[in-house]
Each structure stands twice: as C-alpha cells, then as structure tokens.
Amino acid sequence: MILVTGASGFVGGHVVHALRAAGKDVRALVRDRRKGRRLEAWGATLVEGDMTDPGSLRRALEGCDTVVHLVAIRQGREEQFRRVMVEGTRDLLAAAGEAGIRRFVHMSALGTKETTKDLVPYYRAKWDSEQLVKESGIPYVIFRPSFVFAGDGGILPTFVKLARFTPVTPVIGSGRQRIQPIWADDVGEYFSRAVDLDAAVGRTFEVGGPDVVSWNEFWERLKRVRRIRRPTVHVPVRLMRLNALVTERLPGDIPLTNDLLTMLEHGDNVVSDSSAVETFGLPLVPLDEQLRRAA
C-alpha cells in the first residue's frame, strides 16, 4: 500500500492516477473527503489527516510500505512554510520510520539547492525538507520538477486565459530567462516508476520536459499553437512587484507573488543533467503538444 500525501492537489491527482493505472494500491491523505471523490473513483482509498497533526500521519501509515510525499504550499508566512513543509515532513518521516516504510518518494522543486535556500522561504523549506529525507535512514527518491503543465490545473490555464483575453501579452522583465515545462502526466509517471525502481534509490532527480525555451519563446509558441494574435509587452519587474504587493494579500491561491518574482529574476529554471531521462527511460511530451492539450 502506498500513502500519497497532497493527493487531492493538482500534481497529486496525476500521481495517484499514474499509480492506479499501474495497478498499485493507493491510500490518499486528504484534509477533506469531499475533495477526494475523483481519487476514490480511480480506486484509491481515502484517509483524513493533516501535515500539522502527527497522530493523523501515524494512523494514515498503518499497513503501508511506501510513501509518496507531495505536500507543499506556495505562499504564506515563513512560519507556515516551516510548519507545513519542514516540520510536517519531519513528523511524517518519524512516523514512516516507526511504520517500517521501505521507500520514501519526495517532491521538491527545480531550483532548490544550497545556493538558493536563502532566496525565499519556499526554497528554504524545500531544501530543509530534502535534508530531512536524506538523513532519515529510509531509502528515498527525490524529484525536483520544473513548471508542471496540464489543462486541469496549475499555472498553464492562467497563461492561456492571459493570451486569449488580454489585449497584449505581458512578459515579466526581459523574458530571456529559460524554463523547461513538464507535462503533469509525465510527472505522475516518474513518481509511479520510482516506487519500484531500485536504480533510483538514494538519488535526487531534476525533471523537466524535452524543450528548453525562454519566456519570450514560450509566449510566442503558446500564441502560435492556440492561433492567437496579440502583441507582446515587457513589463518591468518593479511594476509587477507593486502589483504583487496588492494581489498577494487577497484570499485564495494567487498566481503572482513577490517571492515568485524573486525566483524568476534569479535565473534559468532548467534541468542541469539528464540522469532522470537516462534512469527512467520515460518519453516526454513536447512543449507544443502540451500547449495543444491544454485546450
């Protein structure tokens, strides 16, 4: 039995679907059962729990032999990042050790490394969580995905709406920073294969799609694939930061925050080696096909 945390989230749904398609028994950790109905329809069993409740984590792990840990937050105060992502991971690992878990597959993020850990609280929490996983004594696999694209969630539907409905296409800064988007089903397949692949144990994999593009090229491809004609306007980062000061105080999941702008300014978000492709042999969805599928 595989416990999947963050199962009702955007990436979590694709991971659970891939695991169930491979015939794996899945127990999905959810805070609200109503958000897990789709997972149940795929044959996963639900268990209620929360990363801030160690008792619920111990109960969720009963009878499991593998953990796929996906929980993360994108915005909030620094103490929230630490409580949910760092302390939550610490508690989960402790419970996993007690339960005799044989493998722990952990989702980090591309760009997480020692040189970026002090850039924003998100990177710090991801870095600290990685260290906890490595020091736990439990056989592990760590993935650092790039931007994850799909039509049913994440940031891509927002990009499509911007391209369709705004009179101009806003590109932050110079648009020369490079990205390497990966299709969500490919991410799900990486996690599904990692629960059994012994060659992956004890390793950290950066994962991205087959295409590396600048933000300028990304927006041009998106408009070309979707047959949208809009001029492009480069918006200074300082102006976007003023906008973020307002929007990040609004309720809900805000797509643009000052921390995200800091990460975008820092540099390219691309894979530095090909070990994931070589180890897993997974055919990846090209970017133009990703954009077509997001209709």
What would the keywords be for this entry?
alpha/beta, 295 residues, seven-stranded parallel sheet, 13 strands, single chain, two-stranded parallel sheet
What can you see in these coordinates?
The protein has helices at residues 10-21, 37-41, 54-61, 78-99, 121-135, 156-165, 184-194, 215-225, 237-247, 258-266, 275-280, 287-293, and strands at 2-5, 26-30, 45-48, 66-69, 103-107, 140-145, 148-149, 169-172, 178-179, 182-183, 203-207, 213-214, 232-235. The mean pLDDT is 92. The strands form four sheets. The protein has a seven-stranded parallel β-sheet, sandwiched between helices. It has a two-stranded parallel ribbon with strand order 7-10. With 295 residues, it is α/β, with parallel strands linked by helices. It contains twelve helices and 13 strands. 43% of the residues lie in helices and 17% in strands. The chain is globular, with a radius of gyration of 19 Å. Helix 1 (10-21) packs across helix 7, helix 3 packs parallel to helix 4 and helix 4 runs parallel beside helix 5.
